User: Fold this.
Amino acid sequence: MKVEIYSDIACPWCYVGKTRFERALAAFPNGSSVEVVYRPFQLDPSAPHEARPHREVLAAKFGPQAAAMDQRIAALGAEEGIDFDFDTVLENNSLLAHRLLRFALDQYGPEAQVRLKGRLMAGHFGEGMDIGDHEHLTDAAVAVGLDRDAVADFLSGDGLHDEVLGEIDEARQLGITAVPTFVFEGRWAVQGGQETSTFLRVLEQVAKDTAAAGVADTSADTDAGACADGVCEVPATGGTTAAR
Assistant:
């Protein structure tokens, strides 16, 4: 079975969804045979390529409700074993990190990419990592087994720039406007950081090939542009899901 996960490093619900999905995968009898591939998505493609304090960025977008949003996801993350330290989070354009993830996939395979995704999310949300900084990204990649010189050389150029932008465009053409979105076998899609039990049921259903053709949409309604109820959405869009 192949599962493609559309997500952004800077999306807190993507981190929650990753954690819950991996817990479901560990409980799934055939979990070792499931290939997981991360696909790029940017919630804010126009974000400047410079590190900015998360608190300031979120307050500028959502005003007084920003603090409550952080408190809610931090409390939920703690229940999942995730350390969200929003006081240290630095916002930056995520394109460079997505290019590195694609590099990891191409050069080292899906398992290395999954490890790197986890390291980037843990660093971004809990350790003040700048996901636009070459040194920080290189250290993260080396920590999960990638070669330092190869990574540094890749980050110094513009390799995979067009390919990653093409993947992001393809995601939007598929109708993906909110993340995380999990696409199973290229046919069934589940949106949002669902409960572990939900992911486990979907894995079992797809494995038995009993799901109806089309999209399994278990998402909840969300406010456009916000990160709530399991998903982070692109501003001024609806929360739809799609599968190729």
About this structure: The longest strand covers residues 2-7. The chain has nine helices and nine strands. Residues 25 and 31 are 5 Å apart (CA to CA). The longest helix spans residues 110-126.
